[in-house]
């Protein structure tokens, strides 16, 4: 399921783009890039991150999620302040984020769960401010089967900026003028299943990517 989502997200990346990958499913996106002309950025100070396959990683180099990664030929290093200046200065073309929840307007919650001690907001707030395009990759429902695409987030939101695209194992949603549009039915999914498992209202403008429209 996670690789299905990551592979679909990789299709959104254009040649020459600078792309920041968040924690979780986003880290898998690099494994689905055929060409070597996507430049992966991590906010702890590396432009030129390679995929997370064991054969290619350097145990002495980690990404923002503290996972070992590799470095591409021609990669560059910089300090954290310079990295965040790149983000805030809109030099990152695409940020791909993992989230806990997303609401009907495309606002996300990805940094805090009330009552639990987790890492905190990290670079997500800055990426939502500075990256030119925001893609969310997430499972459609939580472990208990409840929708993670909600009318309104119940966890603290990360930013007042809406994301551009939401990719789950069931569907692809585009955010247009503060509304969700289902633009793609993922393989082995149906529009009925998407309706059933999505709390937030959405418009249907779907094409079929291996799923069923009826």
Automatic annotation (TrEMBL):
Q: Is this entry keyworded Glycoprotein?
A: no
Pfam families linked to this entry: CoA_trans
Determine if Transferase is one of this entry's keywords.
Answer: yes
Query: Sorted alphabetically, which SMART domains does this protein's record hold?
Result: CoA_trans
Q: Which UniProt keywords apply?
A: Transferase
One GO molecular function term of this record is: CoA-transferase activity
Q: Which PANTHER family match?
A: KETOACID-COENZYME A TRANSFERASE (PTHR13707), SUCCINYL-COA:3-KETOACID COENZYME A TRANSFERASE SUBUNIT B-RELATED (PTHR13707:SF57)
What family is this protein classified in?
Belongs to the 3-oxoacid CoA-transferase subunit B family.
What this protein is called in its record is: Succinyl-CoA--3-ketoacid-CoA transferase
Q: Which organism is it from?
A: Cytobacillus kochii
